[in-house]
Amino acid sequence: MTRFAHLPLPDGRLLAYRIRSSARNRNLCLRISVEGLTVSAPRWLGFSEIEAMVAGKSAWIAERLEHLARMQNLPDPDPPPPRTIVLPALAESWEVEYRDAPGNTTTGATVLPGKIQVFGATTDDACRKAVLRQWLALRAREALPHLLADAAAETGLCYSRLTVRNQRSRWGSCSAAGAISLNCKLLFLEPDLMRYVLLHELCHIQEHNHTGRFWDLLRKYTPDLEGLHGRMRNAWQQVPLWAHSVRNGTGALFPSPTPCGSTRPSGPRPPKR
After folding, report:
1. Measured between alpha carbons, how far apart are the two ends of the chain, in Å?
2. pLDDT by residue (tens digit) across 147-184?
3. 22 lies in a domain?
4. Residue 264 has pLDDT above 70, yes or no
5. Is 78 inside any structural domain?
6. How many beta carbons lie within 10 A of that of residue 64, not counting itself?
7. Host domain of residue 182
8. In the listed set 72, 92, 118, which residue is the last one of a domain according to the structure?
């Protein structure tokens, strides 16, 4: 038996969904697809009970619907190498020029004022992107130490060392010994978001966990803590696909460490004030 119901979502929208009851169903099951929400339920479960149980999952349902919408709007998973690289964190824009060179592979790049020249085979897009990822890591290793040192001087929080890598799932991390690791992809963020990550990791030197004391400390240096933290949830969308490291027989291009405290795309939320 199939019935229809409506679910009020947290943002005020009203979602129509389908309920399918069957004697073969032993548990309530929620399935979200491009066709919307379908609920499979045991026949013995009453309609009002089903509605109440689905309503209890409204926040999760809204999140999954948003994720599905993002997935449907994803760009080409394997775009060609870029012609321009914009680094908002540094207010820089680089022209990329590809030049043929003898041989079958891309050999490297020459950096000129405002321009990156990549040499190699015109059909070797994968190697071209790998060369650009290496350049990105080098540019980050030039810029991030100065920016982190400035933030440390501002806060008085001293770190033991800095490592810059092309990490897959973390913007940054801080070990118990005060060693900070930063993602070279931070250069694609807006300056205030990049600074938020630097301050986040510096605060982990004093407070290793995401306790109330940690958030209070971070709030001293970032008055708009909640706003910045919320914007970080979608920050990965600012990173172009070519910049993501790829795995091969030897592992990740820039392997990441096991952190103590870390800034993830969606991590613990600061307590509300």
Report:
1. 48
2. 999 999 999 999 999 999 998 878 999 999 999 999 99
3. yes
4. no
5. no
6. 15
7. 84-263
8. 72
Q: Is residue 74 very low, low, confident or very high in pLDDT (cuts 50, 70, 90)?
A: low
Whether residue 270 lies inside any domain: the answer is no
- Report how many domains make up the chain: 2
Q: What residue has token string 């800095």?
A: 162
Measured distance CA(224)–CA(152) in Å, rounded: 19
SS (H, E, C) the chain: CEEEEEEECCCCCEEEEEEEEECCCCCCEEEEECCEEEEEEECCCCHHHHHHHHHCCHHHHHHHHHHHHHHHCCCCCCCCCCCEEEEHHHCEEEEEEEECCCCCCCCEEEEECCEEEEECCCCCHHHHHHHHHHHHHHHHHHHHHHHHHHHHHHHCCCCCEEEEECCCCCCEEECCCCEEEEEHHHHHCCHHHHHHHHHHHHHHHHCCCCCHHHHHHHHHHCCCHHHHHHHHCCHHHHCCHHHCCCEECCEECCCCCCCCEEECCCCCCCCCC
23 and 108, same domain (yes or no) = no
Q: Which of 7-11, 38-42, 90-94 has the lowest mean pLDDT?
A: 7-11
Rounded average pLDDT over 197-210:
94
- CA torsion sign for 49, 50, 54, 55 is negative
Higher pLDDT pick, 137 / 121: 137
Token digits of residue 233: 């949830």
Q: Two tokens at 96?
A: 């990329």
